[in-house]
Amino acid sequence: MKMRILVTGGTGFIGSHTVVELLCAGHEAEVLDNLSNSSEEALRRAALLAGRDADGIPFHRADIRDRAVLEQIFSHQRFDAVIHFAGLKAVGESTEKPWEYYDNNITGTLTLLDVMRRHGCKNIIFSSSATVYGDPAEVPITENCPKGSCTNPYGWTKSMLEQILTDMQKADPEWNVVLLRYFNPIGAHPSGRIGENPNGIPNNLMPYITQVAIGKRPELGVFGNDYDTPDGTGVRDYIHVVDLAKGHVSALEALRNGCGLAVYNLGTGRGYSVLEVVHAFEKASGIKVPYAIKPRRSGDIACCYSDPSKAERELGWKAQYGLEEMCRDSWNWQRNNPEGYGEL
Ligand code: NAD
Ligand code: WQD
Questions:
Q1: For 279-332, what is each residue's pLDDT tens digit?
Q2: Is residue 225 very low, low, confident or very high in pLDDT (cuts 50, 70, 90)?
Q3: Ligand 1 binding pocket includes 43 (Cβ within 6 Å)
Q4: Is the pLDDT reported for residue 344 higher than 70?
């Protein structure tokens, strides 16, 4: 059944891919984003990929902390659910600007939730992160694994927002809340039209690799090769962003079925080391990626990968793409859009 969804942060990396999958699955999407870390061009391209006109997706350039604008949007349109991506996400920056992160992510979400409930929209999918597990006691990580201590304010915003949503749902069972804990999203739409558009020096592994491959940066720094992992470099559960986007479409069903509170890991269940990713990328692109071993990055853990079987059991969702496709599509996007969507 067709649902009308408000997508906050819908011009961003994961949001833009999700908008395409929502429309392709027959849903209607409206997007709200303040463009603090994205470009409206992503939405135009998403619309075209979904067979619409470039301006075929209603867009509100607005901040989730702006109650008046949110009131206006919810007064004019009834939404079946909100998919809430909007938030700041740079781990390092969050340690330098904690207030800005708490204000943007927590005040913003509290404002959004209040306006939603005032308008009787009590269905939400929230972008959470594997970071809420902290340094996991064991891998693979299931949803029953206790949450851990985060190493940075960004992570705490996710952990705290999970708690806030959990408490709100408990107090008012009319709410349906799906917490999706993403592992490490990489890749891009196979068309090469939309992808990740990092601002400045990339913090994450794959965008750094693609910028080395295209000649923007001389070499990759590998943050530590003395971890307790097979080759000593950090192991993560990378997931193709299109698989991740489809996970949101599947989660809408849970909302519709009145799931109450539901938590799912979205990952592949397979961990790869930094060097495995580098070598897979070299194979997929045919380009050598020079790298140098550097000291460990503060706050990093050795190994993190999911047990994604709950999402398969309950949502019928399972990642389809492997590391090869993730590398191929990341490279395809970078090669076709050396400047991303342009400067932000
Ligand atoms: P992104 O930065 O590309 O997208 C986030 C979007 O939110 C951006 O378009 C930004 O402009 C917008 N935004 C930020 N603050 C806003 C505000 N106050 N009002 C309105 N819009 C605002 O990031 P992404 O990688 O697409 O991540 C989407 C969500 O998933 C985020 O909440 C992020 O924390 C979460 N997440 C991301 C990852 C990852 O590795 N990319 C992993 C786990 C969780
Ligand atoms: C992956 C691996 C690095 C860059 C982060 C956030 C997490 C979530 C996803 C939002 C690690 C190594 C990296 C580089 C390297 N984001 N690396 N050289 O740290 O697993 O997760 O993004 O929610 O909250 O913490 O991802 O891509 O930064 O790192 O060697 O230049 O690559 O040490 O082992 P991470 P990442």
A1: 999 999 999 999 999 999 999 999 999 999 999 999 999 999 999 999 999 999
A2: very high
A3: no
A4: no
Please report the pLDDT score of residue 342 as a whole number. 85
Q: Across-strand partners of 126? A: 84, 179
Residue 297 vs residues 131, 151, 152, 201, 294: alpha-carbon distances, Å: 15, 12, 13, 15, 8
pTM of the model as a whole: 0.99
Q: Which residues are catalytic?
A: 154
Atom 28 in ligand 1: residue holding the nearest Cα = 85
Q: Hey, whose CA ends up nearest to atom 11 of ligand 2?
A: 234
- Ligand 1 lined by 88 (C-beta under 6 Å): yes
SS3 state of residue 119: coil
CA distance 294 to 248: 36
Measured distance CA(5)–CA(77) in Å, rounded: 10
Tell me if residue 244 falls in helix, strand or coil.
helix
**Would you place residue 58 in the very low, low, confident or very high pLDDT band (cuts 50, 70, 90)?**
very high
What is the tens place of the pLDDT at every residue in 61-76? 999 999 999 999 999 9
Convert the pLDDT of each residue in 26-57 to its tens digit: 999 999 999 999 999 999 999 999 999 999 99
Phi, psi of 177 (to 5 degrees): -125, 125
Q: Which residue from 154, 137, 222, 183 is spatially nearest to 319, judged by alpha carbons?
A: 183
Which residues touch 310 (CB under 8 Å, ≥6 apart)?
Answer: 142, 143, 264, 265
Residues in Cβ contact with 10 at an 8 Å cutoff, skipping those fewer than 6 apart = 16, 18, 19, 29, 31, 32, 33, 43, 59, 83, 85
- The confidence score (pLDDT) of residue 72 equals 98
Ligand 2: residue of 13, 85, 91 to mutate (most ligand atoms within 8 A of CB) is: 91
Beta-strand pair 184-186/238-240? parallel
Mapped onto helix, strand or coil, the DSSP state of residue 97 is coil
What DSSP state is assigned to residue 147?
P
Query: What is the token pair recorded at 32?
Result: 């709200």
Q: Please state the atom number of ligand 1 nearest to the C-alpha of residue 185.
A: 40
